Every structure is written in structure tokens, then in C-alpha cells.
Amino acid sequence: MFNLYLCNISHFTVRNLSSTLQQKLETMEIIMQPWPWYVGGPIVGFIMLILMYLGKSFGFSSNFRTLCSALGAGESCEFFRFDWKTQRWNLLFLVGAIAGGYVASHWLSDNQVPQIAQTTIEQLHAEGFASAGSSYYPAEIFDHLSPKNIVLLVIGGLLIGFGTRYAGGCTSGHAISGLSNLQWPSLVAVVGFFIGGLIMVHLIFPLIF
């Protein structure tokens, strides 16, 4: 009788554990799948509401200025002369974004390359980018650091670093934070982002590659 009792308890426990494990696996499956815009969008908006409530402005590229100030650039340049410690929360956000991306790519996803339009893949293949559609980044640039590629990467980095600070923000600072505060300069900047992208794709890109 006692053995039967233990057997029933064991069966009940195993069944509950199996059910719990199945539920956790289903939850993990939801987390590991790409989130649609109607899920990710409201989450970003909710984060903005929290930052606005705390009196903070969301912007990723501002960490460039913060890091330069923390390293002593304020001693020789007025632009970097401010209390960078007030932006420690943003530096923490930067670290969290990097760590979160690493965790998500290694343990919370199957690491599939995002799908892009077949027409785009064919156009990139015609331009000599055979890795298009099968790689996260153009391997022809980053895996083969020829003098030309190094020059392009350095110039691109300088333009991004200078441009985001000269414009007062990047896509996150203007498109997310600025537009949510109905800032006219942010609207102008966002329109400029799109115009610059079109010019790059249709005019400059064919000349470079």
C-alpha cells in the first residue's frame, strides 16, 4: 500500500514537472522568436515614458561625449567640459545593450540571419557582395581589410561620430526621444536621415563599390 502511495506521488510529481517544463519551454520559445512591431514598438514607447517621468532623455550616441569627458577631454575642449557622472545611467544602458545582445545571440536565439528582400540580395550580389542574405554584415568589407576598406571604415566612423554630436543626437535620440517630445529639430534630423540614406544607396554606394 505504501509503495503504491509512493508510486502515485512520484507519477504526480513527474507529471507536474513535465508540465512546468513544457510551459517554460513555450515561454522561452516566445522570447527566442523575433518580436513583431506591435510588441517591440509599445515596449520602446513605454521605456520612453519611464525616462520622461525620470527627467532623462534617451540617446545612445551621447555616450561618445560622456566617455570622452570621463577620459579627460574636457581639459582641452569646452564641448566635453561637463559633469559626465550625471550620465552614468546611460553608460550602464550602453553596457546592458552590449551584454544583452551577446546573451540574446548566443543563448536566446537560433542565430538566423534576418531575412531581407530577394531583390535587395540580387542587387547586392551584382555589386559584388556575395555574402548578402547569408551574413549579418558584409564579409567582403569586414573580413578583408584592404587599404580601401580600412579607409572607408575610418571615414565612416569619423562621419558618424562627428555627425551625431554635431546634429545633437542619433536615430534613437532624435527619432525616438526627440519626436516623442515634439521637437522640430528632431523632425528635421529624421527627414535628413532618410534623405541621406537615399543619396547613399542610389548615388554614393555605386561610386564606392
Automatic annotation (TrEMBL):
It comes from Weeksella virosa (strain ATCC 43766 / DSM 16922 / JCM 21250 / CCUG 30538 / CDC 9751 / IAM 14551 / NBRC 16016 / NCTC 11634 / CL345/78). PANTHER family: INNER MEMBRANE PROTEIN YEDE, SULPHUR TRANSPORT DOMAIN-CONTAINING PROTEIN. The chain crosses the membrane at residues 35-55, 89-108, 150-167, 187-208. InterPro entries: Sulf_transp_TsuA/YedE (IPR007272). One of its GO terms (cellular component) is plasma membrane. Keywords: Cell inner membrane, Cell membrane, Membrane, Transmembrane, Transmembrane helix, Transport. It is found in: Cell inner membrane. Belongs to the TsuA/YedE (TC 9.B.102) family. This is Uncharacterized protein.
